[in-house]
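User: Second chain of the day. Same drill as before.
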Amino acid sequence: MRILVLGGTAFVGRAIVEDALRTGAEVTLFGRGRTGTDLFPEVRRLIGDRDTGDYDALRHGSWDAVVDVSGYVPRHVGQAMDALGDRIGRYLFVSSHAVYQRAGVGPGSDEDTPRRPPVRDTEVLTEETYGPCKVACEDDVLARYGTRATLVRPGKVAGPYDTADSFTYWVRRAARGGRVALPGDPGQPVQIVDVRDLARLVVRLLADDRPGAFHAVGPAEPVTLGGLIETCARVAGSEVELVRVPDDDLPPFFPLVRPDRASQQRSPARARAAGMPATPLEVTAADVLAWDRARGEPPLETGFTAEEERARLARRDGV
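Assistant: Same format as last time:
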């Protein structure tokens, strides 16, 4: 199978390329050529820039499938489809759970949950526009390719090479042990999908030429936020005491803390039936811990610093 990946050197794209190569697929990468230049030396690279609309490298060639991991606004997707035309088989768009409406959604919601209204008049991505822009992208892919379109909607993705810090924060913090400041409900459900499970799903859907929309959520067994932190500690061989601390003055999207529980309880049934594996949380946590330590545990951009955590714990204790 000949697969074109729009992106492919960052976290999710990297895992998809690795899995596709493992299955023997012939992979082509399209991107700016500025990151991951040491990755996949055997893979053909086409240079272009989605932000500037440079798709000249895609004007020639044909592929059995396209995986779009770097389309965030309708212009990205529309220009890519215009450049590719009918020289592709299936167009698989990696979307997001942010496409869904939040009100009136209960636990176990599936891929038919109502989505938010599409937004096409901005390319400034915020909490209010990110999901609606993805909705517009989905609509455009479906309108162009119909039954040749596939939508994968991941929840929170975790694993080695994660470019975000929210899962890595808890892996690292739990490994240190001791009293852990938690500005949220330890009983809150949380859904983490291992990036390798997401990649396996994507490649499986392409191999089966399967249309439709699919949730990529995990882990293997339902888990709470408190249970996740304790699992990370167990993997690291440490002991933790979870301490509920005030949640005022938190930055948006503190690692894995979400007031909307239903958004963390979506159904994985359709994706599981299509072949998505279910990696145990212990495995994901162990692999992230090993990767984080191997890279030297650089500063994280989210979560409490050590000083901030001490201050929160002192407030909690009335010191």
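DSSP finds nine helices and 13 strands in the chain.

User: Great, on to the next one.
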